[in-house]
Amino acid sequence: MAIIGGSGYRWRGKSIRTVLRNNNTCVTMPRKESMIIAPCVVNEKKLYKIIITASRNSGNGALLVDFFGGKFYSGIPVPVNITKSEMHNYVVTVETPSFPRSLPVYLRVWRPRDAVGNIFIRSVRYDVCSKPISGKPKPQKPENIKDNTERARIESSRENKVDTSLYLQRRKDRIREKLQEKKNKRTKLQTIAKPKENKVMKFKPYKIKKPTNMATKVLVLKPEDVPKVSVITPTRDGSELLEKCYNALDKNTCYPNWEWIIGNSASTDVTVKQVKGWNDPRIKLVERGTTDGSFSSINNELVKYATGEFVLFLNDDTEPQPFWLYEMMSKIHNNKKIG
Description:
By secondary structure, this protein is an alpha+beta fold. The protein has two domains: 10-165, Jelly Rolls; 223-334, Alpha-Beta Complex (Spore Coat Polysaccharide Biosynthesis Protein SpsA, Chain A). The protein contains six helices and 14 strands. It has helices at residues 148-159, 165-190, 239-252, 271-278, 295-302, 324-334; strands spanning 10-12, 17-21, 24-29, 35-40, 47-56, 62-68, 78-81, 88-95, 105-110, 119-128, 229-235, 258-264, 283-287, 310-313. The strands form three sheets. The chain has a five-stranded antiparallel sheet, with no helix packed on it. Helix 3 (239-252) links the parallel strand 11 and strand 12. The chain is elongated. InterPro entries: Glyco_trans_2-like (IPR001173), Nucleotide-diphossugar_trans (IPR029044). Residues 132-158 are annotated as: Disordered. Residues 230-337 form the Glycosyltransferase 2-like domain. This is Glycosyltransferase 2-like domain-containing protein.
């Protein structure tokens, strides 16, 4: 399966780029520690044949190839030495590491720290070995790797045979716990707490038709079971704002027992005609006939027309959200310290 020369791969390094060489699209890797990463579908603890079609322009042509699935699931890097200046197939055998089934695995091709010169890669292909190879694969020693640190890391990864089954099991358990925590958090955010029931004030939980849409209705047994709320709104020449406020109130107020007292302070627009046109029995229009008075004094004046047990002051430029009044009254009812 070809993974380079098409799409789906990515690279790391400032000088890596796609170029056209001898009418072929290639990826150039001129710098040390440059890296190409491509997703692949492989099985763990299997031998795969890697075919790299590449050429060398200058330098030593050193490459390293391995499979990895993250920080804790890396295979043994296998060196590849690109020796020819023309496109040629270089074949190596690489073993995949042990990794969880849900973990994505990548094929990695990169240049070591002592790499010099420029390499052009036309394609990288991988395929499972048809014939089993006896024993574990023994990659050739990187002849052109002079860095002692890199050599020691490769040699230690080959020779140290540590039983990692317990570590891998703990790692899987931690991943499973994190996934469960995320699932529980997501479920908690989607769940709406049920209000406490009472003999006098009986709130029912929300009934949502579709999980993706915001519910707009909450049912209560009877309007008489909940206290009446008087919503007071003073206005003057605000017909457009009042229209938006009324639409939001009518759509998003699921609380069943409320009235709206609108105090008109000598408006010169179509406010009066607009309010009367709604023909809503829950609305009381109070004609003040004057513009005198401050905002607080007008509200205090309109309180005289309220018939509810609770009074709520609402500006005409607000647009209430779903469950707004239901939530407020539910909090007041369930917390005796409020009010």
